[in-house]
Amino acid sequence: MTSDDAEPTVPTPSAEPTRVLPADTAGTTTSADPLGTSSSPTAAGGPSPNGADAPLTALVPPSVDGGSAPLPSPGENAAYRQTHGPTANQRSVTQRSFGRPQAQEPGFRPVYPGQAWPTQRPTYQPAYTPPPPMDWHHQQARAYTPAPPPKSNRIISIAAAVALVIGLIAGAGAAATIVALDDNRPVAEQPGPPVGTGADPKIRSGSVSAVAATLLPSVVQLKVEGSDNTNATGSGFVIDNAGHILTNNHVVSAAAKGGSIQIVTEKGKTSTARLVGSSPVYDLAVVQVVGLDAPSVQFGRSDVAIVGQDVVAIGSPLGLAGTVTSGIISAKNRPVSTDGDEPGQESFISALQTDAAINPGNSGGPLVDMNARVIGVNSAIATVRGTSEGQSGNIGLGFAIPIDQARRTAQQLIATGQATYPVIGAQVDMQFEGGARVSRVDAGSPALRAGLRIGDVITSINNQVVVSAEELIVAIRTHQPGENVRLVYERGGKARQATVTLGQQTG
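^ thats the sequence. predicted structure below, dont judge the formating
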């Protein structure tokens, strides 16, 4: 007895298929029932009792009384072996073998090692392959081939491969960089943007730079030489297309009785100008250059200027042409007086006060708003007492003639060479404080006709309080000859009113 025949193997009821032996030459086979229930011979290829070809299998349940029959003894092979024919002395029908497998039918391919093969293939081939039974040997379980992984795993694998390729490329670039850094040869510089050829900065509308860009071509520098070897410098600006330039009287007064006036434009061109007319009372003058290549300015309105608004001053302080400074309107209707070249030619200005830097040489230049419109003519600065005129400079107190008055005076100077100003025909005490006290009344003057007398103290004009003689004069000169003004004055401690029609004088 060999080791394969030492002990019969009883199949367990499971889903494992069993092989159906092919029919022998005698035409009949004996089906072995390992549980000893029953066996029935069938003819090879013959019909089964129910009329269908049904192969024998170990999955056929035993009969009801199958459990009463005793199991055959181990040495007996009647129920487990082929008893006749050429298959006698072979292995049991249901015995498992771990040795070399028997010859299989041609064309049959087991799904896993040890699978029994049927004599005929079923017509239905399920796509799902059942897993091996739980009682497999460990070595057989390793031989089981699982189903292919789902497509999602394949996508993940492809993504991982792509990431690996990218990493390799990046690593190669880093390696190349390291090699380049380690190279002692000089590295050629990469071309960069050219230096100093970038885009010009944008000029924001309403900014100081925008105002300067607009006004600088219209502002000129004046150089004056008198017949008595006196000289002066100042500024001016073009007011029309005929070459007329508005400036201060004290800038050109040295050339009033002989001398020369030179103007220098922003482009650096020098031309000789002629004096058209001047007004010492308003400290204004007009000169002209025929064929002047410079644009004219635009006029604004000084009466609508407000305290605190931004302004720009342009001129030639200390001979530095084209200087731009900025500040605000510090006050309005500030009474300012300047000394004239001759007695009785003092100028009185109801000025715009500004903290924009104004120095000697700025006189006659424009004071403009942020819309690049001229609202004043820079004329004077305040100085600290005890300093000489040559040592004076900007202390944040500059004054400009309102353009509303300057424009009217310029038109008169261009038309007739002279300017008129309003008067009441009376003189006031310049040393008195607390009002304007009348010191003289001219015969046939508007003041005499209105009933004013010497000693009357004028305290207001058109509801504007008057506290000094300068304030009264400045207030009168803001009007035009022929206009009516209402005066409030005190006489003998009583307040009285008078309406005065303004006269005119030339100056």
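The longest helix spans residues 151-182.
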